[in-house]
Specification:
Structural class: alpha/beta
Distance between the termini: 31 Å
Oligomer: single chain
Number of strands: 13
Helix content: 40-55%
Order of helices and strands: EHEHEHEHEHEEHEEEHEEHEHHHH
Strand content: 15-25%
Mean pLDDT: 94
Number of helices: 12
């Protein structure tokens, strides 16, 4: 297929371009700056300069372009600032809402009938979901009245646009937390090298993770074999606590041991991070993706993925 990709230079975008081209697809990659053109071409894609949040500029840049599918992986996490709360105009949230709407308009312009979008397991809600693995049939978009509700609302809004737009074969991918090159593991390793506190004194909540290369492989599988109108959970086989995650990061990156803070202090200083690390627990089932997409993670655990770095 001819694929139009937004978010081409992010943590998942880079391995995704390689995975797409390895399967014979041709990729046009949307980037905001011409400075990214050499990297995009090195990865194997053709760059298109446009801002996903500038609807008119995006459509002008794509005028005359043809594509079979659009993949939306654009986030602003690389430029994110530590904030006490997630505001309604959070850049990543806007990319999930207004950005998705703009890319759906772009899909219509370029003739793309298939649209794959990035979603998150955190859309299930920032709370303790218990020991039962969550499936796609569980309630999605549960708000608690807490500081993370804007993330949940934006995630749900992005999914709904893609899955409910008439004439579009939309698929939403509910990724686990990303680790690997350019993702959370690198971020926390850098913090530990600087002796910055990175987690709670206790074990923290349990979460499900996915290596960025496994996420890229799953995305290609969804593009090629996913059922239109479907959301898929994508995570590895081994949910772990934040304590175990940070311990594995320190071991694999050779950093000092993580410095931890009391959970109450994290919630007081940065409530959103506190909600993620101390109040949220979820174990994710990817059985539907295994069955329908023929995908299984190459790295069944964080320990296995980090050992391969």
């Amino acid at each position: 297929m001819q694929v139009l990709l937004a978010g081409a230079t992010g943590a998942i975008g880079r391995p995704l371009i390689r995975a797409l081209t390895a399967n014979g697809h041709q990729v046009s990659a949307i980037v905001r700056s011409p400075d990214a053109h050499p990297l995009v071409r090195e990865l194997g894609a053709e760059p298109v300069t446009a801002d996903v949040l500038d609807r008119d500029g995006l459509l002008r840049a794509l005028d005359g372009t043809a594509a079979d599918a659009v993949i939306h992986e654009a986030t602003a996490l690389r430029d994110a600032k530590v904030q006490r709360r997630i505001p309604a105009d959070d850049p990543t949230g806007l990319l999930r809402t207004a950005g998705t709407a703009n890319l759906l308009a772009a899909a219509e312009l370029v003739g793309a009938g298939r649209f794959v979008t990035q979603s998150l397991i955190l859309g299930y809600g920032y709370l303790d979901h218990g020991d039962r693995p969550l499936t796609e049939s569980d309630p999605f978009g549960v708000c608690t009245g807490g500081v993370a509700d804007e993330v949940v609302r934006a995630t749900v809004a992005g999914e709904q646009q893609v899955l409910e737009t008439p004439g579009v074969d939309g698929i939403a991918l509910r990724y686990g937390l990303f680790y690997g090159p350019g993702a959370f593991s690198d971020l926390f390793a850098d913090m530990m090298r600087k002796h910055t506190p990175v987690g709670p004194l206790g074990s923290g909540g349990v979460n499900s993770w996915i290596h960025v290369e496994d996420a890229a492989a799953a995305t290609v599988a969804a593009l090629e074999r996913g059922t239109p109108g479907r959301a898929y959970n994508l995570a590895d086989d081994t949910p772990i606590t934040w304590r175990d995650f940070l311990t594995e990061v320190a071991r694999s990156h050779g950093t000092p041991r993580p410095i931890r803070l009391p959970a109450w202090l994290i919630r007081l200083a940065v409530p959103y991070i506190g909600a993620l690390m101390t109040e949220t627990s979820m174990r994710i089932s990817s059985a539907l993706a295994h069955e329908e997409l023929g995908w299984r993670p190459r790295y069944p655990s964080v320990a296995a993925g980090l050992a391969a770095r």
